[in-house]
Design a protein that fits this description.
Blueprint lengths: L5 E5 L3 H16 L3 E7 L16 H6 L4 E4 L6 H13 L5 E7 H4 L5 H14 L3 H4 L1
Parallel strand pairs: 1-2, 2-4, 3-4
């Protein structure tokens, strides 16, 4: 393995269940991995009617160094930066980012997008800083 952080993208529910094996393997073998998964809209959580609903945060918490629930589209860059940094720091392992459906379907204006991209560039770890 290269020692560089890798990404694992899954769908909600069953996709997360399958991805947990990779997340656990990352921790066991000290591989820096960030797992990103879609999840049920926050307004539907815990009601039993969410599409492929599973308490993904709790499931991932058992196999990851850290879990990052995203609550807004603007929070995505910081969550990614924090997850990559955590996955690659100290003893490498897995980190989990939870992306609820309502966040994934939200929109921002082109002006806000430019601001958020600038913020993301400012917080993004460099490869040299995480090796």
């Amino acid at each position: 393995m290269t020692g560089k952080p890798a990404g694992l993208l899954t769908v909600s529910g069953p996709g997360v269940v399958h991805g947990l094996a990779g997340l656990a393997n990352a921790g066991t073998n000290a591989w820096p991995v960030v797992m990103l998964s879609g999840s049920t809209a926050r307004s539907n959580r815990g009601k039993g009617g969410g599409f492929q609903e599973l308490d993904q945060l709790e499931a991932a918490r058992r196999h990851a160094k850290g879990v990052f629930p995203v609550t807004s589209i603007e929070a995505i860059p910081q969550a990614v930066a924090d997850a990559v940094t955590l996955a690659a720091s100290g003893r490498p392992g897995g980190a989990y980012i939870d992306l609820p459906a309502d966040v994934l379907h939200s929109r921002i204006s082109p002006t806000e997008e430019a601001v958020e991209l600038d913020k993301a560039a400012a917080v993004a770890p460099t490869l040299a800083s995480i090796q």
